[in-house]
Amino acid sequence: MIRLNRQVTVFGSAIFCVVVFSLYLMLDHLQLDHTKSPNNGGDRLQNGQLSILQGKIDRLERLLAENNEIISNIRDSVINLKESVKDGGPDGGNMSQGPYPELLASPPLVLPIDSQDCQFAAREFSKPADGVQLLDVYDLLTFDNPDGGVWKQGFDITYQENEWDSEPLQVFVVPHSHNDPGWLKTFDDYYRDQTQHILNNMVVKLHENSRWKMIWSEISYFSKWWDNIDDQKRDAVKSLVERGQLEITTGGWVMPDEANSHYFALIDQLLEGHQWLERNLGVKPQTGWAVDPFGHSPTNAYLLKQAGLANMLIQRVHYSIKKHFSSQKTLEFFWRQNWDPASSTDILCHMMPFYSYDVPHTCGPDPKICCQFDFKRLPGGRVSCPWRVPPQPITDGNVQQRVQMLLDQYRKKSKLFRTKVVMVPLGDDFRYTEALEWDQQFQNYQKLFDYMNSHPELHVKAQFGTITDYFNALRKSAIDPGHTGPSLPVVSGDFFTYADRDDHYWSGYFTSRPFYKRMDRVLESHLRAAEIIYSLTLANIRRSGKRNDFPAVENYRLLTEARRNLGLFQHHDAITGTGKDLVVIDYGTRLFHSILNLKQVIVNSAHWLVLKDKSAYSHNPSKAFLQMVSKKKHWRFNFSVETRSVVIYNPTEQDRTSVVTVYVNTPHVRVVTDHGHPVPAQVSAVWDEPTTASTELSFIAQVPALGLGMYQLGKAASGGAETAEYVFFRKSGELSVNVKHFTVNIPQDASTPLSIHNPHLQRLKLKEDGSEHQIKVEFAWYGTTSNRDKSGAYLFLPDGEAKMYSPAQPPVIRVTKGSVFSEITTTFDHVTHTLRLYNVQGVEGQAVEICNSVDIRGEFNREITMRLTSDVDSKDRFFTDLNGFQIQPRRTMAKLPLQANFYPMTSMAYLQDPGTRLTLLTAQSLGSASLKSGQLEVIMDRRLNQDDNRGMGQGVLDNKVTASSFRLLLEKRAKTDGKPSALSYPSLLSHVSSLYLNHPLIPMAVSTEAESLSLSPLSPLASSLPCDVHLVNLRTIQSKVKIFVFLHNTFFSFLSVEHKFSKVMTALLCSHSHCL
Ligand SMILES: [Zn+2]
C-alpha cells in the first residue's frame, strides 16, 4: 500500500497538468425553437441525448480503463445531472437532502486530512523529456552578440556546389499575408481598408494560375469576409481549398499571444475558429503558423496537437537561441511537453532562423539580397529596400543571373536544416492588397521557378507551396516510415523571454496596459460561468418539456459574441497592450459589452433554474427577475420590504464556502439560509475616501458545485451581522475619521514604526510546526534607460535596479477587524494596498489576499513594481506558470540584463527551498521576476513617454486606475532539492486557491416584486468533482450533437502504474485548515 501523503503528493503533482473535462451539450435548432417544439416529444428526445452522452462516456471509460475511478466519478456527476434535472420538482436540488450539508447545521463534509496532505510534489514521479531542454541551452550560451556578417545575428554559411547532385534541393515558397486583427487600426478599419481587398484579390488571382498558392490564418477576418461575399465567390473559395491552393493554417480566431493568454481563452479562440471552419469550409487545419507572437509557449503547442494539428511554425525566438539552433541544425524538432515522459505530446515544429518574417529575412541569410526578391519593392512603388539595392523585374535577359543569386540564398538557408527541403515564406504585414502586387510577386517568381526547374544542372525544384505542402515533403524526407533522411531532435521548454536584437528584451508587454489584462480575465470568468449555467438551463428546459419563452436563441447569440470578443482579444497586439490608443479602446469596449451581456445570460438562466414552478416563468427584459449584485456603490440592497432574497451561483466544480459581499443601506442586517438558519456575517465600512465610509455586508455562503444557493437578508435591530472595528494609523499629521456605525480607534501614539512593508504581515506562520517566515511587501520604481532606445509598450529597458518607493506623505493605514474577514489597507499616493485574511474554514482561509489599486497617471517613464521579500532560500531559481496550464522553472542569470530575467506570469509564480514554498497567485497576467534569493516581484503598471521602434508609433500614456488581485500561500515542503529539474507542479491547495481567485461566487438579487414566488436552490452534481479535475467549460454547440470528454490524462495514466486513487482521496473536498 502506498501511504496517503504520497497519494496526495502525486495528486498535487498531477493536477496542474489539468484534467480537462469539456462537455459539449447539444443545441440544435429544433431545441432552440421552443414554440415549434412539440412538448410530448421532449422527454424522449432528452433521454435519447442523455443516453448518447452516457454511451460516449461508457466508451471513453473502456478506452481509459486505467483511469477508471476518475472517469466514473465524472460519469456519476453527469448521470446525477440527469437525475437532478428529472427531479426538478419541489424536492429537486434540496440541499438538506443531498450529500451537501446545510451550512452550520452539520459539520462540513470535510474529511480529516493529515497535515502532510498540504505538501506537494515532494517526489518526482516523471522524468523530464529526453532531448534538448531549453533550460540547459540557457546555461550553455554566453549571450554575447558578435557581428555575424551579412547575417548579423548568425554566421557565415558555406556549401559545396555538388551537395545536391544526388538529391535536388526542394524549395517551397509560401505566400502569406499577416493580418493583425487590430494594431495600428481597429479590426474593422483594417478589414475595410486592407483585408477584404486581399481576400477578394486572392480569389481572382489564385484562379488565374493553378500553381499559385496562399495561406490564411485569422478566422476572425475570414469569417467577416465570408459574411460579405456571395455564394458564387464562396464556391470559388471552396474550390481553391479543395485544390490545395488555399490552405487555412492554425485556424484560430486570431494568432494569439502566447505569454499573457490563459489556456481557457486559447482554447476558446481555437474552438471558435475551428468550428467556423468545420461549418463553412469543412476543413480541419493541419499546420500551425505563428510568425508574430512575441515568444512562444509549449502550452500552445500542446493545444494545437490536441486540436489535431500535426505541424507548427514559430518565428519570434531569442536571436541567440536561433543562432544556436541553426548551428546545431535543431531548428526543426519535435516539441515535447516537459511533463511528458513519452512522445504523446510531440508536435513537429519549424523555427524560422532569421530576424523577421518579412521577405528580406526569409529567402536566406543575406537581407540585402533577399530584399531584391520582394517584387512589391520594385522601383516606383511605395516601399523600397533599406539596403539600397532595389529588385529588378525578371526578364529573359537577367533571369539566369537572378536565379543564381536567389538559389545561393536558398542553398545557404537549407544548410541550417537537416533535410534537402527548404521553406521560404513570401509575405509581410497586410500584403497582397492590390492586384498589381499579386502580379508582381507571382509572375516574377514563376519565371524564376520555371528557369530553375528547366535547368537540371542546378539540381533544384522550386515551387509555390502551402506550409503543409512543405511539411509533407519534410515528413517524407525525415519522418515517414521508410524515409532515408536524417532524424529530427526532440526539444522541451519554452521560448521566453524574446529578444530580437541587442538587449532589447520584450518583457515590457507582459505588463503593458494591465487594466485590460485584468478585464480579459473578468470576461473569461464571466464567459465560463455563463456557458455552464446556460448549458445546464437548456438541459433543464428540455427535460421539463414545458412550453416557455426562455430567450435561448438570443442568449446563444450573446454567448457567441462574447466568445469572439474574448477570442479577438487574445490577438498578439491586444492582450499584449501593444495597440494604438484608439485600438485599445475598441477592444476595451468589446470586452466591456460582453461582460454586461454575459451577466444577462447568467441572470436569465438562473431565473429559470431557481423557479420552483417552471410554468411561472416568463421572460420580460424590461422587468428583471434577478439582478446581478455588483460591488459598485450605485447598487445596494435597501430594505423597503422585510427580507430580500439573494441567489448565489457557484461556477466552480467544487462545493464551496466563500465570502460574498453586497452593499447595504443599513448596518442592521441579518443573513439566513433558505431554511432560516443564521449565517456568519459582518458589516464593514466602504471607504469612499480613506477615512469616510458607507456600508457593505459580507457573509459566508456555502454553495454546491455548479449550483445555486439561496440566502435571505433582513433587517435586524439586534443579533444581526457583527460590525467591523477599525484602527487608523498615520506616522505624522492629523487624522480625522468620519464614519457612522463603526468603532474607530486612532492611537495617539503613532510612533509605531510604519513603512510600506506592513508590520502586520511581517510574519506568516506555518501553524503545524510553529515556524515563522518573514515576508515583506514593498513597492519600487523602475525608470527607463538614458540610452537612445528606451522602454515602450513592448520593451523593458530599465535604468538599472528599481528604487524603493518613498511616499511624499506618510500613508494612512487602516486596520479592519471583523468576524468574517480582517484587513489592512495602506493608502499611498500611487497605490492603495490591501492585505486581507478571511475567517473561513477551508480553501479561502488558507491564503492572504492582496489587492492593489494602482494609479500612476501623474508619472512619466516610470514603472511600479510590487516586491515580496521572504526568507525562502530560493537562490537563483523560481517558477512561473505558462498560460495557467503548466509550470516552467526559471533561473535568474547574471549574464543576462535585468530585463531578460522577467517572465510572464499568467496565474502564479513561486519560490521555494527544501522546507517551504511561497506562491503568489494572480488574477491577471503580469510580468514577474526573482532578482534576488527570496524575492519575487511583479510589475504592476508602466507609463512610458516614447515609442520603442517596433512599429506601434506611440508611447503608453493611457493608464487607468488599475486594480489587481493576488493571493499569497505559504506551504510546507519536505524535499531536498537536488539538481535543477525541468519539472515542477503547484500544490493541490494552490490550484484550488487559484480557481477560487479567478472564479468568484456570483450573487444575484431577487427583485422585490418577485419575492412572492417560490424559489429553490439547485445542486446539479451529486458532489464536487475530485479536486484534481477541473471543469474547463460546459459549452453548448449549435448545429449538431457533439459530446467531447476531453481528458488531459497523461499523468493519470502514468500514475496508475503506481497506485489507484483511493475512495478517500476522491472524496476530498479541498477544505482543510492545516497548512498555514
Ligand atoms: Zn502581428
Automatic annotation (TrEMBL):
The keyword Coiled coil applies. It is found in: Golgi apparatus membrane. Its cofactor is Zn(2+). Pfam families: Alpha-mann_mid (PF09261), Glyco_hydro_38C (PF07748), Glyco_hydro_38N (PF01074). Its EC number is 3.2.1.-. It is a single-pass type II membrane protein. It catalyses: N(4)-{beta-D-GlcNAc-(1->2)-alpha-D-Man-(1->3)-[alpha-D-Man-(1->3)-[alpha-D-Man-(1->6)]-alpha-D-Man-(1->6)]-beta-D-Man-(1->4)-beta-D-GlcNAc-(1->4)-beta-D-GlcNAc}-L-asparaginyl-[protein] + 2 H2O = 2 alpha-D-mannopyranose + an N(4)-{beta-D-GlcNAc-(1->2)-alpha-D-Man-(1->3)-[alpha-D-Man-(1->6)]-beta-D-Man-(1->4)-beta-D-GlcNAc-(1->4)-beta-D-GlcNAc}-L-asparaginyl-[protein]. Residues 50-77 form a coiled coil. Binds 1 zinc ion per subunit. One of its GO terms (cellular component) is Golgi membrane. This is Alpha-mannosidase.
